[in-house]
Write a structure and sequence with these properties.
By secondary structure, this protein is an alpha+beta fold. Helix content is about 35%, strand content about 25%. It is built from 10 helices and 19 strands. The N and C termini lie far apart (about 100 Å).
């Protein structure tokens, strides 16, 4: 009898504990008990009734991906350990792939921001603005960005087939590309041969080495007594690290605001430090200039530190934070948006240059650079 009472009491306590847990969980998640009940019901049905047995780890991974996917934000994603390692390799400056930067444009279409010079994607003729509608035989509609990037990466020597929609083309283009080890340059610069008073500096991406390499380069350039002004080329620069972009801005913008970061807690203003070069500056931009490169271009424009030449930029004004997880994975989450020093929101809008110059298609003549030289020489 005592045993029966003990068992009955235990079961009653267990039921009460489960009910309390469900109410507490519902309160934490800001939902109702029925939704929590449905969640556990689905979990138990999958475990007990599914034809294919589902490991608990797989269920949890799927739940985490589903939660992040519910944001409908192509830049927010849960990354398994393998995927996070690929992201880290990318930020370090080398990886196996085809050498293109991609983003999401209208209606979450996978769009090429820019190909990297000298890479397989560049040699295959891929262009900024191309829409990737297929990777091998898989359609990219509603595919998250990191999944698409992961599918295009792979072992050097292997092939990937891209289905490309290009504005002005009447049919889908199929481009087969052989993957290579991609070494991403950070920055290159030189005194122009025909214009010895002008330094031409091209920043390819805002990676871990960019600000350090730029500082060394500028120190060397300043040894040249003829050096009077800079053409900064941000064309086809897809961005990278926000912190690196702010460090780089310190060379080209006087001390003061570079960007305003707006998140769920409010707005923070981040300013440049005292590395200002203080020389006449012209900046080249185009539709392949995105994210961190737009932070730099927007600061230069709003602070009147230089003249922007080219075409309107890509328009990615969102900031992603990466949170490492205990098992080696990570959550990449859109946590903020950035505004230019004059509080302009450029997300999906881009930055208009001071002087618009459209580069001629399939022309070896760089008329944007020629215009930049012409403008800069009037500043000496």
């Amino acid at each position: 009898m005592k045993k029966g009472r003990w068992l009955g009491g235990f079961l009653t306590g267990l039921v009460v504990a489960v009910i309390i847990f469900m109410f507490t969980l519902a309160a934490i998640l800001g939902t109702n008990v029925q939704q929590v009940t449905e969640f556990f019901k689905i979990t138990s049905l999958m475990k007990l009734e599914s034809l294919e047995k589902v490991p608990n780890r797989q269920l949890i991974e799927g739940a985490m991906k589903g939660m992040v996917g519910s944001l409908k934000d192509p830049y927010s994603v849960y990354m398994e350990p393998r995927e996070y390692k690929q992201l880290e390799a990318h930020m370090e400056g080398s990886y196996g792939g085809i050498g293109i930067y991609v983003g999401m444009r209208d209606e979450n279409r996978l769009t090429i921001v820019s190909p990297i010079k000298g890479t397989p994607g560049f040699k295959a003729g891929l262009k900024s603005g191309d829409i990737i509608v297929k990777i091998d035989d898989v359609e990219t509609y509603d595919m998250d960005l990191d999944t698409a990037v992961g599918m295009m990466k792979g072992q050097p020597g292997t092939q990937v087939m891209l289905g490309i929609f290009r504005e002005g083309s009447l049919q889908l283009l199929e481009v087969e590309i052989t993957r290579e080890v991609i070494n991403i340059p950070a920055v290159e610069g030189k005194i122009m041969e025909q214009q010895p008073e002008i330094a031409y500096i091209e920043i390819f991406t805002f990676s871990n080495n960019t600000s350090r390499d730029l500082a060394h380069m500028l120190a060397n350039l300043e040894q040249d007594k003829n050096f009077k002004g800079v053409i900064l080329d941000l064309r086809n620069n897809p961005g990278g690290s926000l912190q690196v972009a702010i460090e780089v801005a310190g060379f080209f913008v006087p001390p003061g605001p570079v960007v305003h970061i707006m998140d769920s807690r409010g707005t923070e203003t981040i300013s440049a430090d005292g590395n200002y070069l203080d020389k006449p500056l012209v900046v080249l931009v185009n539709k392949g200039s995105a994210s961190a490169s737009e932070i730099l271009a927007g600061a230069i424009k709003d602070r009147e530190a230089g003249i922007l030449v080219g075409t309107k930029t890509f328009g990615k004004g969102l900031v992603q934070s990466v949170y490492q997880l205990p098992r080696g994975g990570a959550l990449k989450l859109t946590t903020a948006k950035y505004l230019t020093p004059n509080m302009h929101d450029i997300n999906k809008k881009g930055i208009e240059p001071h002087v618009e110059v459209e580069q001629k298609k399939d022309s070896d003549q760089d008329i944007q650079l020629e215009k930049a030289i012409e403008i800069l020489k009037t500043k000496f």
